[in-house]
C-alpha cells in the first residue's frame, strides 16, 4: 500500500489518542495480514523515513537507543548501527520483529530511519555525538508507544496463557536471551503486552555469520523466560504459529534487511548473508521442531 508522509502523520496522531484498532484505523503498516486460504501476506515492510530531530537518549537499556522524530511526525525509538553491538543487532531487531508480526504477535511498527551525520550537532554529550556520527545512514526505528509501562512479573499483570506460550515459542525459535524477569523487554500499552527489543536474538550470528550448524543447537536459556511460568502449552503454540512462518514468509522477511547492514563481514556478499539467515530459520522451522519441545520441557519442569 502506498501512502504519503502526510497520511502517516495523521495516522500517528490518531494512534496517540486511542488504543490500537480503534477509530477505524487501518492495519499497522508493514503488517502481515491473512490472505486467501489463511496464507500470510507480508506488506511492503518497514518504511524508510528521514530523521528530522534527535530528541534524547534512552538510558534505561544497555544499547543507548535514541528517541528520534521522523519526517512523518512520528516518534521512534531508534537502535543505532554505530552502537557497540554493531549492525547485526539491527538485523536481529528487524528479522525477529517482523517474524513476530507475521506470527500474529503484538510488535510496534518498525521503520528504517535515515540519520544525517550531523543530526546530533546540538547534543552536548560527546558519547552521543560519537554514536550519532558512527550511525549515519539507515538505523532501526520502533514506533514509540507513548505512556507504555514496563511489564512487571512481580505485579502479576495478566498475560493470557496462549499469548504467553506464543511469545515463549517465538523467543525459542529465534534464541532470544533477552526476555527474562530481570529484563522482560515487554511493554504494557492500552492494557495489552507489546514485544520490544529483539537485538540480542539470533545471538550466534555474532560468533559466526554463516550460522552453520546453529539451527540444531539446544537453547537451555529458554528456561529463564519471563513468561514461562504463566504460559500455556508450547506444543499448542507450535501448532498455531509454525504454519504462519512458511519458508516464503521467512524469505520475504529476510529480504527486508537493508543490504548496508549486511556488509560487516569482509568478503561475504549481502546475498550470502541473507541465505544464511533464511536457511537457519527455515531449518529451525522444519518439523519436528526441537526448540518447541525444549521449551515445552522447560515449562513442565517449572510447573
Ligand atoms: N516502542 C517503544 N515504546 C515505548 N518505550 C520504548 C519502546 N522501545 C523501547 N522503549 C523504552 O526504552 C527502553 C530501552 O529500549 P530497548 O529496546 O529495550 O533497548 P536496550 O537494548 O537498550 O535494552 C525500554 O526498556 C523501554 O523503556
Ligand atoms: Mg531492553
- The ordered string of helix (H) and strand (E) elements is HEEEEEHEHEEHEEHHHH
Number of strands: 10
Percentage of residues in strands: 15-25%
Main β-sheet description: 5 strands, mixed, barrel
Bound molecules: adenosine-5'-diphosphate, magnesium ion
- In round numbers, the mean pLDDT is 88
Helix content: 25-40%
Q: Note the total helix count.
A: 8
Distance between the termini: 45 Å
Query: What's the shape?
Result: globular
Spatial order of the strands forming the largest sheet: 3-4-5-7-6
Using the CA coordinates, give the radius of gyration. 19 Å
List the keywords.
10 strands, 16% strand, binds adenosine-5'-diphosphate, single chain, 303 residues, three-stranded antiparallel β-sheet, alpha+beta, binds magnesium ion, disordered N terminus, five-stranded mixed barrel
Could you describe the 3D structure shown?
The protein is of the alpha+beta class and 303 residues long. The protein has a domain at 149-302. It has 8 helices and 10 strands. The strands form 3 sheets. The protein has a 5-stranded mixed β-barrel. Strands 8-9-10 form a 3-stranded antiparallel sheet, with no helix packed on it. A hairpin with a 2-residue loop joins β9 and β10 (192-195). α6 (247-254) runs antiparallel to α7 (270-285). The radius of gyration is 19 Å and the shape is globular. The N and C termini lie far apart (45 Å). Mean pLDDT is 88; it is low at 1-28 and 33-41. Bound molecules: adenosine-5'-diphosphate (ADP) and magnesium ion. The site of magnesium ion (MG) has 3 residues, from loops.
